[in-house]
Amino acid sequence: MLLFEDIVRAEKIVSKHIITTPVVHSKALSEAVGQHIYLKLENQQITGSFKIRGAINAISNLNPAQKKAGVVALSTGNHGRGLAFAANLMKIKCIICMSELVPKNKIEGIKALGAEVRLIGANQDEAQLEADRLTTEEGMTYVSPFDNIDVIAGQGTLGLEIYRQIPELTFAFVPLSGGGLICGVARALKSLNRNLKVIGVSMDRGAAMYESQKAGKPIFVREEESLADALTGGIGLDNKYTFQLTKKLVDEIVLVSEKEIADGIHYAYWQESQIVEGAGAVAIASLLNKKFKPNGPSVALMCGRNINMEKHFSLISLKS
Ligand SMILES: *Cc1c(COP(=O)(O)O)cnc(C)c1O
Question: Which of 73-77, 284-288, 296-300 has the lowest mean pLDDT?
Fold first, then answer.
């Protein structure tokens, strides 16, 4: 259901619109872990996260009628930004539905990327109803942030890049929420080297995919606030793709605490000169805290940098 060829095809489209983010060798992490550790700096991607890869691929694969009607999403975060950016780039109408409680700066951020923001109701469920209405009554296409094959294939282009940049790679540490990112990356990497291992990293607060894999089916996990806000949320009880793909492609899932995420953000800044959001710090946090010990060259994917800068300043100002 997700083929290597889908990812190769996605790269032909996506690579025209994004930057190939750098990979750097981390001396500090390599010494701490005892293996060569590389960082994939996807925090430097346009819009500040990898989400534009999946969004561009999903929009490109719409048929002409779907393109004319446009796309809709629910996210106030990186997916909303990514889809808004991609839609604007490809001159497609895009509506992002949000609850009226969403902070003004997030609304303005999405509007600035050219999307229409529709504020509905006092919670996510009411915004979901409007998104459903737009798909059924106005023929718009709902784009899931993770449970969509074209989105997964788009995120998988990161795997192709990583393999070219680090051919000797043996382990990849990848942030995990709904699983679109890790499933795409794992499919790409394992097609190129079937001995390569892929480790998912989630926060220990409300780790929906981790709990669902343990239960053997998608389950409801109560959402909790986390510094890694891009990793919060469920995988959908009617999950179509990422639950099964994660089961097949991900070798292990490890969890990090809020303190470990905060320390990861601090470390990324002071040791690597990188600004990352919470989700962007979980892979290095898992290595620093020895949640899983790789026995060969490894990459930690730093997937995003969209953090409130006052929050970031307070975190990096803490003495470690
Ligand atoms: C969306 C997102 C994730 C999680 O991706 P999934 O495909 O839901 O697993 C991780 N990090 C950042 C920065 C994100 O925006």
Answer: 73-77
**Which residue's CA is the nearest one to ligand 1's atom 4?**
177
Could you tell me which residues are beta bridge partners of residue 98?
Answer: 119
Domain ranges of the chain: 4-47+149-316, 52-142
Q: Whose CA is nearest to atom 15 of ligand 1?
A: 78
- 320 pLDDT band, cuts 50/70/90, is low
pLDDT tens-digit readout, 126-174: 889 999 999 999 999 999 999 999 999 999 999 999 999 999 999 999 9
Is 1 a residue whose pLDDT tops 90?
no
- CATH 1.10.150.130 is held by the domain 52-142: no
**Architecture category of domain 4-47+149-316 in CATH:** 3-Layer(aba) Sandwich (3.40)
Give 176 Cα–ligand 1 centroid separation in angstroms. 6
pLDDT of residue 126: 87
Gap from CA of 36 to ligand 1 centroid (Å) = 25
CATH topology identical between 4-47+149-316 and 52-142: yes
What residue ranges line ligand 1, CB within 6 angstroms?
A: 49, 51, 78, 145-146, 175-182, 230-231, 277, 279-280, 303-304
Neighbours of 228 (CB within 10 A): 26
pLDDT at 196 over 80: yes
